[in-house]
């Protein structure tokens, strides 16, 4: 059998491994050579048995196999490939085409069915189409891995007891359809937690749709959430799909829900109760399957008391409540966050990960952080982009965080966060007293946080506070 080489090399197949299986070895070699010219990495098997052996031992992206061979034919090889290499694409070749064999090939999962003698342009197009599917699968798998890494529970950084409780709570409620209310100051990571809930649920392959209520004018909020029909109001020139419809099957995240106008609150409550929305200007109800996660930095109980927020909607949202502590109450996590952000931001800017001086770490740990994690991230990014010597030091700190000249004594920075070289040689009791006092200072007297930072039980710390006469 001959292979008619009628085309010049087309798109390169770099990075794609192809296995050609044919008991006509001369034909198999000709196919391999024609594909290698455009960059594919090819292996050849002269029988179905040899092809099966290679599939069991090696990894291939595309398998090109003859249909009629010996005991192990192309259909058998196709089915085995789908078992061993489920992401691989299989192209079947035959010199005896029939409707029955084509149907069997399609039902078994073949991506294409080509007849001999082969036209090289047709073969290369088929392999390129198959390899494009493989590349797409790889990209999707990589995207899923990155999403899991960024928005999985590992992305919610924190070893402080308060954050461990949050992570435990997330693990319990993520794979449910329960409505969740996230409370926390601005910058504490409410959207990150909402994304982690979504990414660890069975809705992860459906949309995650964030909406910041405070950023939308009241006049268009209802249309943004529920959609509208053409002509329903001035400027509505065409039909619009609202966020609820867009998030169907997935998760809708309503940030700053405490800012929602009362009229919209009534409609939201109806949607949560009936799981149906009505577009502005329409009388038709549309079923929606959406998990709602809401967040606010406001005191909703106070808003209920003052009449700004409906009590029935508050109870409907407050099924599971997750409270995120401000950064000043989880000081033990600041060193972890510093290291996380300096590596992440350096990667974003294509720079080497810089070190952070002990004095700069001291300033970052002891700062009050009114803007919480968002402010810390921005501070690290500012330090990194302005740095010229590869060391993030006090002079790189944003002005509001930078200590006054002479206010930081470098010799006093040796503690559990910054190192303690100057304590070497002192009595163990003095070292222990020093560590415990510094832990209480860094955590502003929070015994639970201080005990966690020291790696001891809270009762032990309480006993040592009395024994050493430490100041809280």
The CATH fourth-level homologous superfamily of the largest domain: P-loop containing nucleotide triphosphate hydrolases
CATH C-level class of the largest domain is Alpha Beta
Q: Kindly, what is the distance between the CA atoms of the first and last residues, rounded to a whole number of angstroms?
A: 89 Å
| Percentage of residues in helical conformation | 40-55%
Mean pLDDT: 83
What is the count of distinct domains? 4
| Strand runs, count | 14
State the major sheet: 5 strands, parallel
CATH topology of the largest domain: Rossmann fold
Q: DSSP helix count?
A: 18
The percent range for strand residues is: 5-15%
Low-pLDDT residue intervals, each spanning 5 or more residues: 6-10, 409-422
How are the SSEs placed, and which strands pair?
Elements: E1 17-21, H1 25-36, E2 41-45, H2 48-57, E3 62-66, H3 74-84, E4 89-94, H4 99-108, E5 112-115, H5 120-151, H6 161-173, E6 180-183, H7 190-199, E7 208-212, H8 218-226, H9 243-246, E8 251-255, H10 262-274, E9 276-278, E10 285-287, E11 291-296, H11 300-305, H12 311-317, E12 320-323, H13 334-348, E13 355-356, H14 358-366, H15 372-386, E14 391-392, H16 428-442, H17 447-454, H18 458-468
Parallel strand pairs: 1-2, 1-3, 3-4, 4-5, 6-11, 6-12, 7-8, 8-11, 13-14
Antiparallel strand pairs: 9-10
Care to give the gist of this entry?
With 472 residues, this protein is an alpha/beta fold.
Notable characteristics:
472 residues; alpha/beta; Rossmann fold; Helicase, Ruva Protein, domain 3; 4 domains; five-stranded parallel sheet; 44% helix
């Amino acid at each position: 059998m001959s292979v008619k080489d009628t085309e010049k090399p087309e798109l390169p197949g770099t990075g794609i491994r192809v296995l050609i299986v044919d008991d006509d070895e001369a034909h198999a070699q000709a196919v391999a050579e024609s594909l290698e010219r455009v960059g594919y990495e090819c292996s050849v098997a002269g029988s179905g048995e040899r092809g099966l052996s290679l599939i069991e031992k090696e990894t291939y992206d595309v398998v090109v196999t003859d249909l009629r061979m010996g005991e192990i034919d192309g259909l058998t090889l196709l089915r085995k490939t789908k078992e061993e290499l489920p992401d691989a694409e299989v192209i079947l070749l035959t010199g005896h085409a029939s409707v029955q064999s084509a149907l069997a090939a399609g039902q078994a999962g073949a991506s294409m069915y080509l007849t001999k003698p082969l036209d090289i342009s047709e073969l290369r197009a088929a392999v390129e189409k198959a390899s494009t599917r493989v590349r797409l699968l790889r990209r999707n798998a990589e995207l899923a891995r990155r999403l899991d890494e960024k928005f999985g529970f590992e992305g919610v950084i924190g070893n402080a007891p308060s954050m461990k409780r949050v992570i435990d709570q997330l693990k319990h409620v993520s794979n449910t359809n329960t409505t969740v209310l996230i409370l926390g100051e601005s910058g504490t990571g409410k959207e990150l937690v909402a994304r982690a809930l979504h990414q660890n649920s069975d809705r992860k392959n459906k949309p995650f749709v964030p909406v910041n209520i405070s950023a939308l004018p009241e006049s268009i909020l209802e249309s943004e959430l529920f959609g509208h029909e053409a002509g329903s109001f001035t400027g509505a020139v065409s039909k619009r799909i609202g966020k609820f419809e867009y998030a169907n099957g997935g998760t809708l995240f309503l940030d700053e829900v405490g800012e929602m106008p009362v009229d919209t609150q009534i409609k939201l409550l109806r949607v949560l109760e009936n799981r149906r929305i009505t577009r502005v200007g329409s009388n038709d109800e549309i079923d929606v399957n959406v998990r709602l996660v809401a967040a606010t930095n406001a005191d909703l109980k106070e808003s209920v008391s003052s009449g700004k927020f409906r009590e029935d909607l508050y109870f409907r949202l407050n099924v599971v409540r997750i409270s995120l502590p401000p950064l000043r109450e989880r000081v033990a996590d600041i060193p972890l966050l510093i290291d996380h952000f300096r590596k992440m931001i350096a990667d974003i800017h294509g720079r080497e990960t810089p070190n952070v001086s002990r004095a700069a770490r001291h300033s970052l740990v002891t700062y009050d952080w009114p803007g919480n994690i968002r402010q810390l991230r921005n501070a690290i990014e500012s330090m990194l982009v302005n740095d010229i010597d590869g060391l993030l030091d006090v002079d790189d700190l944003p002005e509001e965080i930078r200590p006054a000249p002479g206010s930081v004594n470098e010799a006093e920075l040796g503690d559990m966060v910054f190192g303690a070289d100057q304590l070497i040689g002192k009595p163990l009791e003095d070292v222990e007293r020093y560590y415990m006092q510094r832990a209480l200072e860094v955590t502003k007297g929070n015994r639970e946080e201080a005990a966690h930072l020291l790696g001891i039980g809270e009762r032990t710390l309480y006993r040592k506070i009395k024994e050493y006469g430490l100041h809280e």
